[in-house]
C-alpha cells in the first residue's frame, strides 16, 4: 500500500506548479486518446504476459491515477474514493462470497444475481431499456455483441445456431443483390447487417469476434510479409503473388 501511495504522490508532484508543464496541461478530455491507446496495448500484451504485460498494466494504472488526481483537484473525488467505490460494488455484487454462500453455486447463477443486483443500483435505476448503458463509443464489434447479449437475456434470440447461419446467408444474398444493382448506399447498410449477423454467429459459437478477427489479421499479416519478402511488387504479376500466398499458407 505504501508503494501505491508513493505513486499517487508522484502524480500529484507532476501536476504541481513545480512539476511537469505537459502533465499540468492535461485534462480529462485530452487524456481520452491516451487511455484508449494504453488499453489496446494492454490487450496486446495479455497475449504475451510477463514483463511486457507488467509494463503495460503500469501505463494503464498511470491513466487511472492521473484522472483521479485531476478530479480531486476539482473537488469531485479522489483515488481513495475510486477504490472505495469499486470495493463496495464487488462486495455488493458477490453476496455468495461475502454473505450467503448458498445464493449461487455455479457461474450461471452468479451472472443472474450480478445482473439483478446491478439493475437495482442507483446509477441504473433510471434506465428505461435493457439496452441502456451500452456506450455508443464502444468498438463496433464489441457494441454489437453487447446488444445481442442483452437482448438474449430476455429470450430475444435464435433458439439454435442453424437459424443464425441461415440469417448470415440471407444477409450475404441481400448484399449481393445491392452490389449487382450498383446501389452502394444500400450495399453499405446490408454489409453492416452482415457484420452484425456474423457477430451473432460468433456469440452462438462462444467465440470472441474481436479475438477471432485479430487472429485473421495476424494470419494475413504473416502471409503477406512472406509474399513481400519473396517478390518485387513492381514486377510481379497477381498470379505470381497468389502462388507465393499459397506457399505461405503451407
Q: Which regions are unreliable across 5 or more consecutive residues at pLDDT < 50? A: none
Structural class: mainly alpha
Terminus-to-terminus distance: 52 Å
- General form: extended
Can you write the helix and strand succession as a string? HHHHHHHHHHHH
What is Rg? 24 Å
Q: If helices are DSSP runs of H or I spanning 4 or more residues, what is the number of helices?
A: 12
Q: Helix proportion of residues, in percent?
A: over 70%
Number of strands: 0
Largest sheet, in brief, is:
none
Question: How much of the sequence is in beta strands?
Answer: under 5%
Report what the structure shows:
The protein is mainly alpha-helical and 250 residues long. Helices cover 72% and strands 0% of the residues. The longest helix has 24 residues, at 50-73. It is extended and about 65 Å long. The model has no long low-confidence stretch (mean pLDDT 92).
Strands, helices and their partners?
Blueprint lengths: L1 H14 L5 H5 L2 H18 L4 H24 L5 H14 L2 H4 L8 H14 L19 H13 L8 H20 L3 H21 L4 H22 L7 H12 L1
Helix pairs in contact: 1-4, 3-4, 8-10, 9-10, 11-12
Amino acid at each position: 500500500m505504501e508503494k501505491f501511495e508513493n505513486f499517487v504522490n508522484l502524480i500529484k508532484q507532476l501536476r504541481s506548479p513545480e512539476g511537469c508543464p505537459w502533465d499540468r496541461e492535461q485534462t480529462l478530455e485530452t487524456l481520452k486518446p491516451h487511455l484508449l491507446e494504453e488499453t489496446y496495448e494492454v490487450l496486446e500484451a495479455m497475449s504475451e504476459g510477463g514483463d511486457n504485460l507488467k509494463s503495460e498494466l503500469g501505463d494503464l494504472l498511470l491513466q487511472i491515477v492521473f484522472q483521479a488526481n485531476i478530479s480531486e483537484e476539482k473537488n469531485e473525488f479522489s483515488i481513495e474514493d475510486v477504490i472505495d467505490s469499486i470495493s463496495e460494488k464487488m462486495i455488493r455484487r458477490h453476496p455468495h462470497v461475502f454473505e450467503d454462500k448458498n445464493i449461487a453455486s455455479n457461474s450461471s447463477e452468479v451472472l443472474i444475481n450480478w445482473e439483478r443486483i446491478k439493475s437495482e443500483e442507483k446509477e441504473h435505476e433510471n434506465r428505461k431499456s435493457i439496452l441502456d448503458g451500452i456506450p455508443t463509443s464502444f468498438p463496433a464489434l464489441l457494441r454489437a455483441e453487447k446488444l445481442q447479449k442483452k437482448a438474449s437475456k430476455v429470450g430475444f434470440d435464435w433458439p439454435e445456431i442453424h437459424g443464425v447461419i441461415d440469417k448470415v446467408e440471407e444477409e450475404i444474398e441481400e448484399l449481393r443483390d445491392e452490389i449487382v444493382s450498383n446501389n452502394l448506399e444500400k450495399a453499405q447498410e446490408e454489409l453492416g447487417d452482415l457484420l452484425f449477423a456474423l457477430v451473432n454467429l460468433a456469440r452462438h459459437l462462444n467465440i470472441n469476434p474481436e479475438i477471432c478477427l485479430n487472429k485473421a489479421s495476424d494470419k494475413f499479416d504473416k502471409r503477406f510479409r512472406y509474399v513481400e519478402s519473396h517478390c518485387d511488387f513492381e514486377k510481379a504479376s497477381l498470379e505470381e503473388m497468389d502462388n507465393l500466398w499459397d506457399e505461405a499458407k503451407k
